[in-house]
């Protein structure tokens, strides 16, 4: 299912095109939400002190980076940096293919 473009969002930048760049954005969003709490790419967000109220902010931030509206459910299904990055990458790749 294609993701809806965010209204009045700038197009995705080249800096977020690759998963290596996207993972940095995910780490930054987590770090900001967790107020500097240390975590690894394989830690579960909720096990390191995250809670559901922070998820909306993280997904909104990632939506601005990708230029797409990302469903909150994606975070709950993929609660690690690594798995969330893979899910966002796959969803935005699927969206690009659907536009062709």
Give a structural overview.
The chain is mainly α and 100 residues long. The protein has one domain: ACP-like (Non-ribosomal Peptide Synthetase Peptidyl Carrier Protein, Chain A, Orthogonal Bundle), CATH 1.10.1200.10. 55% of the residues lie in helices and 0% in strands. It is built from 4 helices and no strands. The chain has helices at residues 19-33, 52-66, 72-77, 81-99. Helix 1 (19-33) packs antiparallel against helix 2 and helix 1 (19-33) crosses helix 4. Residues 7-17 have low confidence and may be disordered.
Question: What's the total count of β strands?
Answer: 0
Content of β-strand: under 5%
**Main β-sheet, in a few words?**
none
As for the CATH topology, it is: Non-ribosomal Peptide Synthetase Peptidyl Carrier Protein, Chain A
Instruction: Characterize the overall form.
Output: globular
Tell me the CATH architecture: Orthogonal Bundle
String of helices and strands: HHHH
Amino-to-carboxy terminus distance: 14 Å
Instruction: Provide the residue-averaged pLDDT.
Output: 84
Radius of gyration: 13 Å
* Helical residue percent band: 55-70%
CATH class: Mainly Alpha
CATH superfamily: ACP-like
> How many discrete domains?
1
